[in-house]
Automatic annotation (TrEMBL):
GO terms for molecular function: kinase activity. Keywords: Kinase, Transferase. This is Glucokinase. It comes from the Bacteria. The keyword Kinase applies. SUPFAM superfamilies: Actin-like ATPase domain. Belongs to the ROK (NagC/XylR) family.
Length: 306
């Protein structure tokens, strides 16, 4: 990953010191260190081991961050953290994939570990959307929509060069959308997400989880029928998002979104029904959009010199 953070908002220049970015996910965690101009100097990705709970994940991420910062050398001036859920100063809401995550105080943990005063924390999809705004497919695009299909499913809205957080910070939590019938059905994330498709693959006896299911669905049969039904459900919600927002561009991020088959079927359904279809693209950042967003949060937390 060689993307720099040039192009962030704010006039003036930022000089000296290092930036730390941490992206916490339900499946993996990514840590990166950049210089003050945003040039990535070191990064690494490790499994979350969500089944082992939140404290061990946080501890391992902080240990890895300390190792990378020490390896690069230099003072740390700011940190940015991307996390699932709705981040509050005293905890995190709507983050069920890692037991105990709701009790973490991420900003305090990073401040205590590194003695750094400037720590910005945001939802992981909001961080990914910030990266797309500053560095990627949403530059000069307004409004924009980022849809993350990875371990879970969520969205982020960009308007006027910023990311819309909502009244309670929960804008874009479409994983909680009602899916299926009879009322109240189930949650969309339980129907269409990486973990949901892993479970579906297991039920069908298809090896390889979501990726194996997508591969099996390239051929007619039970796997294709079952996957298509899940994609149909997701498409209904994405259509509603597009009708409500009228985005200029939709950016898809996350491991499931990288499947050509799944992405093609999803986009095809938008083509069929939307009166004004937005441009739909796959993020060029692969798994790193939220990490780049975390580093951008860190960079924008540092006051610019005039």
């Amino acid at each position: 990953m060689s993307v720099g953070l040039a192009g962030s908002a704010g006039a003036g220049t930022r000089t000296g010191g290092l930036l730390l970015g941490i992206d916490f996910g339900g499946t993996k965690m990514a840590v990166g260190v950049a210089d003050a101009q945003g040039r990535l100097l070191a990064h690494r990705r490790v499994p979350t081991h969500a089944e082992r709970g939140a404290p061990q994940a946080l501890e391992r991420a902080l240990d890895l961050a300390a190792e990378l910062v020490a390896g690069v050398g230099g003072p740390l001036v700011a940190a940015g953290v991307a996390s699932p859920g709705v981040v509050r100063p005293d905890g995190i809401d709507l983050a069920p994939n890692v037991p105990g995550w709701e009790r973490l105080r991420l900003a305090d943990a990073v401040r205590d570990a590194f003695g750094v005063g400037r720590v910005a924390v945001d939802n992981d999809l909001n961080a990914a959307a910030l990266a797309e705004l500053r560095l990627g497919a949403l530059r000069d695009v307004d409004p924009g929509l980022v849809v993350g299909i990875g371990t879970g499913v969520a969205a982020a809205v960009t308007v006027g060069g910023g990311v819309l957080s909502g009244h309670r910070g929960a804008a874009g939590e479409i994983g909680y959308a009602v899916a299926g019938a009879p009322w109240p059905g189930t949650m969309l994330e339980l129907d269409f997400s990486g973990r949901a498709l892993d479970r579906l693959a297991e039920e069908l006896g298809v090896p390889g989880g979501a990726a194996g299911l997508a591969d099996a669905a390239k051929r007619p049969g039970a796997a294709r029928e079952a996957l298509t039904a899940r994609i149909d459900e997701a498409a209904r919600h994405l259509v509603t998002c597009c009708l409500l927002l009228d985005p200029q561009r939709v950016v898809l991020v996350g491991g499931v979104a990288r499947s050509d088959l799944i992405r093609g079927l999803l986009v095809g359904r938008l083509d069929e029904v939307l009166p004004h279809r937005p441009d739909v693209v796959l993020s060029r950042f692969a798994d790193d959009a939220a990490l780049l967003g975390a580093l951008t949060l860190a960079r924008e937390a540092v006051p610019a010199s005039r």
